[in-house]
Amino acid sequence: MRRPDLQRRSGHGDARMMLRALLGDGRTDAPAPAVPRRRFLQVGGVGVLSSVVLVACSRHSRGAEPAPTSTSTSTTTTTFPTLRDPGAAVDVLILRTGSSLEHYAAGVYTEAAGLDVVSTRSVLDTMKYFADQHSEHASAFEGATARAGGRPYTEPNKVLSRAVAAQLARLKSEREVLQFAYGLETLLAATHTATAGEFADRSFNPVVTGIGAVEARHIAALGLHLSGSSPAAGSAWPAYPGDGLLAVSGAIAPGLGF
Amino acid sequence: MGTAAGSTLPVGNAQAAEALAGDDALVAFLRSVELAGVRLYAAAEPFLTTPAARAAVTAFSAHHAAHAAGLAVVGGDTAVRANAALLANLSASMQTVRTEADELSLLYSFEEQVAATYQWVVGRLVAPSVLGEAATILPVEAEHAVVMGTLLSKPMDGLVPPFQTDTGYLNPDNFPVG
Q1: Is the dihedral of CA B85, B149, A186, A256 positive or negative?
Q2: Which among A209, A224, A240 has CB closest to B119?
Q3: Is A216's CB within 8 Å of B142's CB?
């Protein structure tokens, strides 16, 4: 079988831009641009995130037991569970990253719904509905983490959370709130989708796709509100990608933000 | 590592080969479903009256063709045609279509079934490259369903369930690749 070029995906837009937006504009201390783990492991990495993942992999490749390991910067600490199976350790890393993103998303929706600029009843209902679903997704990731032998991660993603208060404060209209939510959902859908096929335990593949597809449904619902059912070419918030393929080029690599 | 009886392949390789053959069969099935989708969408044209429906149908038909082509890249070059059994199954419903709403309802149901089918298949695929391809298509089928459902004014809780499941998936045993 031939291997597809994952980087060719264009989809809804560049999730890397979404990540930059979520991290805050113009940040110089932001992690390296996120890349799918598959490519990331091939090319090696730069920056904090890369060192975290590569530390884990190098330990595994030597066959040593991956003892609890922390790699810290001034604001980020990543702890790996003690697992004898290197594959399970990577599975846990992916699943814990998923948990952190879902907790972050649930919190963003909850906080955004409390902004003065959000007043339309249907929009508020939708935001609460999506927040509840992200909480359910977080629980699903936590359960999967436990099944993989890891310790479930129960907090919002720390890297993304750093900038969220300031970003929400900058949103001046209901439409801007929905645009922010669209970017958030794009990042989550890309990240979950990119991890399909990366698990040592293949039973986790449907877990991430089953959640990633719902994030895509969120994108569609938000995109319909922002751009209508027949978005113009080049629309920043389309309900579906013009080329019919979900972009994964800006997915967050496992290990970011916890 | 032992060898499989009657084979010079090591057992592990034989199992891997069997798994990849399973992938090829599933990909061929998905391609046949996508091509059936192209046919289904082509038949929708006469019943469309609103610009929004026309735009969605045009876009999604192209998507299904692109999905079939993308799957062919990762899943082998064997010729695959539109799934005849699926089209035969759909034909009864297609003949009852009288209005745009009827047509959109049919397409909505199809998209939900296709999304469920991808979710089912993802649980069975082995090769990461094939999984990656299926995983990037599945969310878009789900988005199709949301757009179609919204055009039909379906409520949000029906269009956006908590999790994508495989409920209602198209079983290859019932719709074999012809």
Answers
A1: negative
A2: A209
A3: yes
Interface test with A, best of B61, B146, B154 (most A CBs within 10 A): B146
**107-146 in A: which are within 8 Å (CB) of B?**
125-126, 129-130, 133, 136-137, 140
**Burial, A151: exposed, middle or buried (Cβ in 10 Å; 0-12, 13-18, 19+)?**
middle
Beta strands in A34-180 (DSSP E): 70-72, 77-79
Task: Convert B91-160 into a string of H (helix), E (strand) and C (coil).
Answer: HHHHHCCCCHHHHHHHHHHHHHHHHHHHHHHHCCCCCHHHHHHHHHHHHHHHHHHHHHHHHCCCCHHHHC
Nearest Cα residue in chain B from A9: B136
Residue with tokens 């296709």: B114
- Nearest-10 crossing angle of helices B128-151, B11-42: 20
DSSP-derived letter for residue A201 is S
**What is the interface size between A and B, counted as CB pairs within 8 Å?**
176
Number of other CB atoms surrounding residue B105 within 10 Å = 18
Task: Summarize pLDDT for A212-254 with one digit per residue, the tens.
Answer: 999 999 999 999 999 987 777 778 999 999 999 999 988 999 9
The rounded distance, in Å, linking the Cα atoms of A157 and A104 is: 6
Q: What phi, psi does A8 have (nearest 5°)?
A: -80, -10
Q: What angle do CA A104, A109, A111 make, to 5 degrees?
A: 90
Interval B13-29: pLDDT, tens: 676 666 667 999 999 99
Query: Among A127, A129, A122, which residue's Cα sits nearest to residue A112?
Result: A127
Q: Which residue of A has its CA nearest to B152?
A: A229
C-alpha–C-alpha distance, residues A256 and B138, integer Å: 25
Residue type, A182: Y
Residue A93 and residue A199: Cα distance in Å, rounded? 10
Q: How large is the ipTM? A: 0.91
pLDDT digits (tens, 9 = 90+) for A171-187: 999 999 999 999 999 99
Q: Is there a contact between B163 and A136 if contact means CB atoms under 8 Å apart? A: yes
B59 to A240: CB separation less than 8 angstroms, yes or no = yes
Q: How many H-runs (helices) and E-runs (strands) does chain B carry?
A: 6, 0
Q: How far is the C-alpha of B115 from the C-alpha of B62, rounded, in Å?
A: 17
pLDDT tens profile B64-84: 999 999 999 998 778 899 999
Largest CA distance in chain B: 64
The confidence band for A9, taking pLDDT boundaries of 50, 70 and 90, is: very low
